[in-house]
Amino acid sequence: MRWPRIIILLVLFLILGAFLHYTLPQRDIVRIVNTEARLFTPEGWNRFFYADEDAGSAVAGAQRDLRLINTVRPNGNVIVYRNEDTGWVWPPYFKFRSQDLQTEATNLESTATEPEWVAITHYGWRNNFFSIYPNAVSIRPVAGPDVTLVPWLNLIILAMLALILFFIWRLWERFKDRVVDPIMDRTAVLWARMRDWIASRRA
User: HSE of 42 in the Cβ direction (CA atoms, 13 Å)?
Assistant: First the structure.
């Protein structure tokens, strides 16, 4: 019984870790090289990674404008962010200013010879095969590509989550000691008596 429980716990922790990695805000130091908007229709299961069609808009439809922010990391690797409102649902960023953010991104474009570095706060993943992009939440200029950004919000959220999990574990331990273990002990005693009774009947 030990290995199945360990495997189940590992799977649960992997799911929780992937969920937190996708949802919690991350910050990248990049240089904006271009912004664009193109018609886009989420299809299949990758629709899950995009906001609802009517988030931040009065008009709903399957096809929408997908705002993109094209950037380059300090090491030369490129990364593309989408810029769409999140609405009132999950994740709870309550972002309704995607057009303003697109304008800010356009204003911060720079070249390799005269770079202007910015910190883009975002959530989500980039995957070329499935055509999904991290969603930019905010942009602010920074002093340079080597600036250190401490993820205080993530640390606070993770600390609170760890505290909640600790309290849940303690409650379960108390419930197990007071309820589950006595029931298991009584069940084991009854089972032993039943086996003894069956053995005596066969004798």
Answer: 17
In terms of phi and psi (left: phi > 0; alpha: psi -120 to 50; beta: otherwise), the region of 87 is: left
- Spell out the alpha helix ranges (H) of 66-144: 98-107
What is the C-alpha separation between 133 and 78, in angstroms, rounded?
A: 12
Could you list the residue range(s) of the whole structural domain that residue 59 is in? Answer: 26-148
Over residues 30-70, the pLDDT tens digits come to 999 999 998 887 777 777 788 766 555 544 456 778 999 99
SS3 content of the chain, % helix, strand, coil (to 5): 45, 20, 35
Q: What pTM does this model have?
A: 0.79
Q: Are 85 and 51 in contact (CB under 8 A)?
A: yes
> Where do the DSSP E strands lie in the chain?
26-40, 64-72, 78-82, 117-123, 135-141
59 plus 138 within the same structural domain: yes
- How is residue 141 annotated by DSSP? E
Out of 148, 166, 186, a domain closes at 148
* Distance separating alpha carbons of residues 149 and 151, to the nearest angstrom: 6
Are 95 and 85 spatial neighbours (Cβ–Cβ below 8 Å)?
Answer: yes
Query: How far is it, in rounded angstroms, from Cα 3 to Cα 86?
Result: 41
